[in-house]
Amino acid sequence: MNVITGANRLKFNNCSIITSLWRFYASGSAENIEELVKKNKVVVFMKGVPEEPRCGFSNAVVQIFRMHGVTYDAHDVLKDEELRQGIKAYSNWPTIPQVFIGGEFIGGCDIMLQMHQNGELVEELRKAGIKSALLDKEQQMSKTEDTK
Amino acid sequence: MTGEVPENKPMERAIRQKLVETLNPVHLDIINESYMHNVPPGSETHFKVVVVSDKFDNLPLIKRHRLVNDALRSELQNGVHALSVVAKTPTQWKEGTQVSPSPACRGGFGK
């Protein structure tokens, strides 16, 4: 009874191929997430969309990037439970939002806020080849001061 | 600092115990912010922790947060839905004890 017949074995093999394909293409798979985080210089996994964040912490991240004039890819984890769990496993980070710059996991809302406040964010963006709009503003302000 | 938590706050107690054990903090605040969110009164789902420990010395922010997250792994898997972390070294804590408030909820809890 325990003998696997040829037909059954074939079925089993097909199954495992399908499983691995599914794993590869599934939104929560490490492969898919790796692709997502490298697709753009800045990638955010959040609740809701930038136009309408569904969580205060996600909204804070959106507002920070708005101030820095940064465009980014945003992924709404509320629309995709698999992605929501997958991203937590991928970065070994238990909460949403999650921010990636240059393909690297940077942190969540608390870390973004601190980096915004202490100037590290401007530097991190620069490393990824992005000039923060706050720098332009600073330059303009110092120019106006010069001409005074 | 310990022993003042009433019996009916099991999660708060667990968080306190885990953080004391792992990080031996010189200052520890556990703030239940669940009331700010769309959950029943008395919930223990949204927390902010303020941890001051010399275990954070010379560690970048992300590693400090990871220490806290790792200490609270099982709590985060079993009921704690949001965790805001303030992780400072004793020297930083002396420089300023101000902790910024958490952002207002925008209704995303439980979708």
Automatic annotation (TrEMBL), chain A:
Domain Glutaredoxin, chain residue ranges per copy: 42-106
Iron-sulfur is among the record's keywords: yes
Pfam families recorded: Glutaredoxin
NCBIfam families in UniProt: Grx4 family monothiol glutaredoxin (TIGR00365)
Stated name of the protein: Glutaredoxin-related protein 5, mitochondrial
SUPFAM superfamilies membership: Thioredoxin-like
Entries under CDD domains matching the protein: GRX_PICOT_like
GO cellular component terms given for this protein: mitochondrial matrix
Keywords: 2Fe-2S, Iron, Iron-sulfur, Metal-binding, Redox-active center
Top-level taxon in the UniProt lineage: Eukaryota
Transcription regulation as UniProt keyword: no
GO molecular function terms listed in the Swiss-Prot or TrEMBL record: 2 iron, 2 sulfur cluster binding; metal ion binding
UniProtKB/TrEMBL annotation, chain B:
Membrane-spanning parts: none
GO CC terms, sorted: iron-sulfur cluster assembly complex; mitochondrion
Database matches in InterPro entries: BolA (IPR002634), BolA-like_sf (IPR036065), BolA/IbaG_stress_morph_reg (IPR050961)
SUPFAM superfamilies reported in the protein's UniProt record: BolA-like (SSF82657)
The organism's place on the tree of life at top rank: Eukaryota
Family label: Belongs to the BolA/IbaG family.
Protein name as catalogued: BolA-like protein
Organism: Cryptotermes secundus
